[in-house]
Amino acid sequence: MTDLSLALSPLGPNDLPAIEKLDERAFGPGRFALTAYRLREGVAPDVGLSFAARVGTLLVGANRITHIVAGGAPALLLGPLTVDPPFRSRGIGEALMQRSLEAAKKAGHKLVILVGDEPYYKRAGFKRVPFGRLTMPGPVDPARVLYCELEPGAFEGLKGPITKVA
Description:
By secondary structure, the protein is α+β, with helices and mostly antiparallel strands. Helix content is 23%, strand content 32%. A hairpin with a 2-residue loop joins strand 3 and strand 4. It starts with 5 loop residues before the first strand and ends with a strand.
């Protein structure tokens, strides 16, 4: 993990403005053009599965989980997973991700999707979605669309679009 005194807590209603500023610092204004943002737009994150990371009172990282439909089945979208640049490479992102995956599994969810770098996320059990199996609403590098089964076999047979929950 990290040598910092790190505290992870579920997102609170007052966290979202600070997290938006953190996302802006980490990803810049171009983040709104990303396909995954289209799936999150106008949809509140599941605060029971999304977490903030703090060192003292300083927000240094956060992640959000949003409910989606993947190939006709209920799923979760992990992201953005954000760590303030000066605090990167200290295990904060991995701690946030693991906490969300544990909470999602405990709540009975079966499948998590994200768009990200496979070498980083495979440590948490994510695998590349086979080409053509799931499609996202907009341009995305198919090599970056990943899934993690929280229940064995949850991905089996899924095919089709990834959409917002109706």
